[in-house]
Write a structure and sequence with these properties.
The complex is a heterodimer.
Chain A: H1 7-34, H2 36-56, E1 64-70, H3 75-82, E2 89-94, H4 98-106, E3 112-116, H5 120-126, E4 130-137, H6 141-167, E5 180-187, H7 194-225, H8 228-233, H9 238-266, H10 277-301, H11 305-321, H12 334-340, H13 344-358, H14 362-391
Parallel strand pairs in A: 1-2, 1-3
Antiparallel strand pairs in A: 3-4
Helix pairs in contact in A: 1-9, 2-7, 2-9, 7-9, 7-10, 7-11, 7-13, 9-10, 10-13, 10-14, 13-14
Chain B: H1 3-19, H2 21-41, E1 49-55, H3 60-70, E2 75-80, H4 84-92, E3 98-102, H5 106-111, E4 116-123, H6 127-156, H7 161-168, E5 171-178, H8 185-216, H9 219-224, H10 229-258, H11 267-291, H12 295-312, H13 325-332, H14 335-349, H15 353-377
Parallel strand pairs in B: 1-2, 1-3
Antiparallel strand pairs in B: 3-4
Helix pairs in contact in B: 1-10, 2-8, 2-10, 6-7, 8-10, 8-11, 8-12, 8-14, 10-11, 11-12, 11-14, 11-15, 14-15
Classes of the chains: A alpha/beta, B alpha/beta.
């Protein structure tokens, strides 16, 4: 009996500590579940928003509207013209004058105008060099370059075939020519399904947004409503106030992630989900939990909701654009790549794409996960440190 | 409508804004930071693609062929590996994004005038980058083939190599890039960024305007006062429109001076159209603010109606014609698309009201509709 005496206060303290954590966690869950607007918004984002991002958008050249001014009106010119076809191009008919093409491009009705010169077929037959012209609306530079590239490929192939035909070499087939036959394969996403990439990256973006915004907003709302005063006079430590909040938010975000993953990604877009889902959820939990530190950090800076919103945007946007999802790391400038290496989203993205599309395991991803742990601990520590200081 | 009361309400709102120093400074900082980040960060050029090679042939020709990739500025050589198993690992771990597998008898077959199939593996995780990489691979392969064919012709037909090359390319393609002659990514992106930022930031500023008073209860002062609905709403949005107008000038200066985008159109027309667009986007914020009851909700609804459509359905990255039918409908219902036409027209194309009158008219109608809706939904005698 007496031997237990020194233990008792400890056990009792632990029980009280545990009880307080439990009460606070229940309180946070209740608060979240009663806020129908926020819940509705989360459901919308994890389903509709991911769906919209995956379905409507494709970053490739598709149906580039093309008009043709055919000054030759021959079989050859028509053959060349009809090679500009879907999925990349869409022929919108012929025009009578050169100026008409420029006007259509000015108005944004058409994207490309192709001019085939007179005597095109004649020159081709006589082996005389000839040139066709392609006017490209390059207000969107990527698509402009793609269109020019595809156009050059079509015209080059057309010319080569015509030349081989004229020289009489094509007759015995390509089996007797020393050429390199291109056999390219895209791994991990063989059909170049944009929806896979877009929906996964949108999901990861949304996870990040909530991980920052929810804890920040919840804390500032207590400040705005004045309920923070009650917390301050309660016997709770800063950790006991902050931890249950993050716990509840993380749980809700994980449920949203699961909803999105199974209902939208797998259900609608048929993303193959190659790797271990346990590993994916473990990494997501780690990421959400540590990124929440940033939200807490914002909450210590902001005094009202408007400030939370703006600060979230200010932290969230750089994270998105320096994650490597929109700009490949190879194309970044030196200092931008440096910034990218401190963005936790970059590693989360690497790990998630690795697990979901490539089927990578812990063996391949340990360095990304380690980076999430390191950067995450710093974020969490920063949030905790500011939070403690503000409470004392 | 009594102008004096409008001014008073505007004055009160302005005071409130500048006294919240964090909010006030952020309302200017956020748009500029967004512009800088997106301008420097959203480079869609694909260069220095890391790649590895498996060379089963190890001949002079296969090395020459590999050098076509090594020498290209689009690819960055990461070394030879022994077999395909090692390649798979490199691709999975993101160390390379492309891999070339040169088969055995590469040289032997080519010297005997037989075709060779060369396999290229490309990381398909990021489809748009994969497409571009694929394009580069095809271009390098066809250049190599042309060269081999020209050698073949000069050997068989006895014509000089130079002539043989020319004969193989009877048709050349002259490409003329209109509007953005040097095809700079930033030239086409910078003007559209103004559109995106002005789509996102004014509603965010305004969205909390009315709802904040609802939450804090100070709205009852308005309910009880002589200020009419119209006077209140007009006074309320004026400071936000002023802030956004100033921001739009800063953004214009950043686009033209820092990013060097050309401005070919009429400045006065541009200013008028931008002002109209600002009224539209501010109106969206106002409408949200009138409709919802809490600040969190206001911010979330604003994010839904501005962020995603502003980026995806406005023609920044993807032209409207490439969108799916539903997405096109969404795009036509939002002001962003019309303003994109105007910005691109003013900056790059140098066209004015004559071509863009319809887009301008839509903005006018949109602004009118938003404010009418906001007015009719805001009541001084709330039902609940």
């Amino acid at each position: 009996m007496n031997g237990e005496q020194p233990n008792r206060p400890f056990v009792a303290r632990a029980a009280v500590w545990y009880r307080r954590m439990q009460v606070m966690t229940v309180k946070e869950f209740l608060q979240l579940f009663r806020d129908t607007v926020v819940l509705g918004f989360m459901v919308y984002v994890f389903t509709m928003d991911v769906y919209l991002a995956g379905s409507g958008v494709s970053l490739e050249l598709k149906n580039a509207t093309t008009v043709v001014h055919d000054a030759d009106q021959s079989a050859s010119s028509r053959e060349l013209m009809y090679r500009f076809r879907p999925p990349y191009f869409k022929l919108d008919g012929e025009i009578a004058h050169l100026e008409q093409g420029v006007r259509l491009l000015d108005q944004g009705e058409e994207m490309l105008a192709l001019y085939i010169p007179p005597h095109f077929q004649e020159d081709l037959r006589n082996g005389k060099p000839t040139a066709v012209q392609l006017q490209v609306d390059s207000t969107n530079s990527v698509l402009g370059l793609l269109a020019a590239g595809y156009g050059a490929r079509i015209v080059g192939q057309f010319g080569l075939e015509a030349a081989l035909l004229r020289l009489g070499v094509a007759g015995d087939g390509q089996e007797n020519l020393p050429i390199i036959q291109d056999d390219h394969r895209a791994w991990f996403n063989p059909n170049q399904n944009d929806a896979w990439f877009m929906s996964i990256s949108e999901l990861l973006t949304d996870i990040t947004l909530f991980a920052i915004f929810l804890p920040g907003a919840a804390m500032v709302r207590e400040k705005e409503r004045g309920t923070v005063e009650q917390l301050l006079v309660s016997p709770l430590s800063p950790f006991q106030i902050m931890f249950p909040k993050i716990l509840a938010m993380t749980a809700v975000i994980l449920v949203g992630t699961a909803l999105s993953l199974f209902a939208v990604l797998e259900g609608v877009f048929h993303v193959p989900l190659q790797g271990s889902l346990t590993l994916f959820f473990a990494v997501t939990t780690l990421y959400v939990f540590t990124t929440a530190g940033l939200g807490m950090f914002i909450a210590t800076l902001a005094r009202n909701m408007a400030q939370v919103g703006m600060l979230t945007v200010l932290i969230f946007l750089p994270m998105i654009f320096l994650s490597g999802a929109w700009t490949p790391p190879e194309a970044m400038t030196y200092w931008m790549r440096g910034l990218m290496y401190i963005s936790p989203l970059h590693y989360f993205l690497d790990a998630s794409f690795g697990i979901l599309l490539k089927g990578a395991g812990l063996k391949n991803l340990w360095d990304s996960i380690l980076a999430i742990v390191l950067i995450g601990s710093i974020n969490f520590g920063l949030g905790m440190w500011r939070f403690r200081r503000q409470f004392q | 409508m009594n102008m004096k009361r409008v001014v008073v309400v505007a004055h009160k709102e302005w005071r409130e804004i500048i006294r919240d120093r964090v909010f006030f400074s952020l309302s200017f900082i956020v748009p500029v930071v967004m512009m800088l980040l997106l301008g420097y960060g959203l480079s869609l050029d694909v260069e220095n693609i890391p790649f590895a090679v498996v060379d089963y042939d190890r001949s002079a020709l296969s090395r020459d062929y590999t050098y076509r990739f090594i020498g290209s500025r689009y690819f960055a050589f990461k070394g030879y590996v022994s077999d395909e198993r090692a390649l798979a690992r490199l691709l999975t771990e993101n160390r390379v994004r492309a891999a070339i597998i040169i088969p055995e008898k590469f040289q032997e077959r080519l010297l005997n005038d037989r075709p060779v199939r060369v396999q290229t593996l490309i990381d398909g995780t990021f489809p748009s980058r994969t497409m571009i990489t694929k394009g580069y691979v095809i271009a390098i392969n066809s250049a190599a083939s042309q060269e081999l064919l020209a050698g073949y012709l000069s050997r068989k037909g006895g014509m000089p190599l130079k002539e043989a090359r020319q004969v193989l390319q009877p048709v050349s393609l002259e490409v003329r890039f209109l509007y953005n002659q040097s095809v700079k990514s930033i030239w086409s992106i910078a003007p559209k960024l103004i559109m995106v930022i002005l789509m996102v930031s004014p509603p965010f500023l305004t969205a909390l305007g009315v709802v904040r008073e609802k939450e804090s209860g100070s709205i009852y002062n308005i309910y009880a006062s002589t200020v009419s609905r119209g006077e209140f709403l007009f006074g309320k949005v004026t400071p936000y429109i002023a802030i956004s107008s100033f921001n739009s000038l800063v953004l214009w200066a950043l686009a033209t001076q820092l990013f060097g985008a050309p401005f070919k159109g009429n400045f006065l027309f541009y200013l008028t159209a931008t002002f109209l667009y600002l009224i539209c986007t501010t109106g969206i914020g106002l409408l949200v603010s009138v409709l919802v009851r809490t600040q969190i909700a206001a911010m979330m609804v604003t994010a839904i109606v501005t962020l995603v459509p502003g980026v995806l359905y406005s023609g920044v990255l993807i032209p409207i014609t490439s969108l799916t039918k539903t997405a096109q409908m969404v795009a036509h219902c939002l002001p962003a698309m019309y303003y994109t036409n105007i910005v691109v027209g003013c900056f790059l194309k140098g066209v004015g009201l004559r071509v863009l009158w319809l887009d301008t008219l839509v903005l006018v109608l949109y602004a009118t509709a938003l404010f009418t809706l906001g007015y009719s939904l805001f009541h001084k005698r709330p039902s609940s």
